[in-house]
Design brief:
Elements (H helix, E strand, L loop, with lengths): L5 H14 L4 H6 L4 H14 L3 E3 L6 E5 H16 L4 H25 L10 H4 L5 H14 L2 H26 L6 E4 L3 H27 L10 H7 L9 H28 L1
Amino acid sequence: MERFPIGIIAMIIVSVLIYLGLAQRALDRMRLSDRGALVVIAAIILGSYINIPLPFLPFNTSINVGGALVPVALVVYLLAQAGTGREWVRALTGAVATAAIVYAIGSLINTGPTIEPAGRYAVLDAIYLYPLAGGVVAYLFGRSRRSAFIAATLGVLLVDIFHYAWLLYRGAPASYTVSIGGAGAFDTIVLAGIVAVLLAELIGESVERLAGGPGVEGRPPELVKGLKKPGIGAPSVLEETLNAKKDSEASVKEQIKGGDLGEQE
């Protein structure tokens, strides 16, 4: 019996968390709305079943919509939302580091004869090791939720692209079939992105709270304003409403008091 892709299961769980409002803080940091995130998840799940054939190649090659095209589009959007050039550097450097670690795990740690780089088809069924390692490395380099996600997803996808380039170089037979971003690579890309964001959320949030809020020195005013979310040094919408109501009541009382004094005079 063919197993249900763990990546799709993870996406469904994330969708439930978003629907319940439990992922609001992470989405805010990534400049994603609940609706936008759910649309992306739906595109990833549906796209995982769609492979676009690439013509004029020596063997059967396709690119998976949910595991390659949608993540790349999301990465481009997140990079466009990056507040500083330093975040770009962290995200892209983290992607290269993540790719190197995932490749090293497949080629070096998983010992034994492998005829392909990173042992893509030999060991990728150990589906939890790659995203865990990739997610940790992506967080260490990216630090922010946005950069960590970019580094994780793009890093794993780079390994898959390198594998494809290696097959072209070695001259794989015409009967060979490759789906870039599909099969086990899809699960790894999805899980690595989730692990990276979870680490950034859990560890990063704890550090921010201990420090009294996110650092604002040297950051653009718009980015600082975006960082000022409820619980991180700024009042919530409810608190702002209550404060405004109190100010209004105080103003009315002062006016009434002033009117009474005027009548007494």
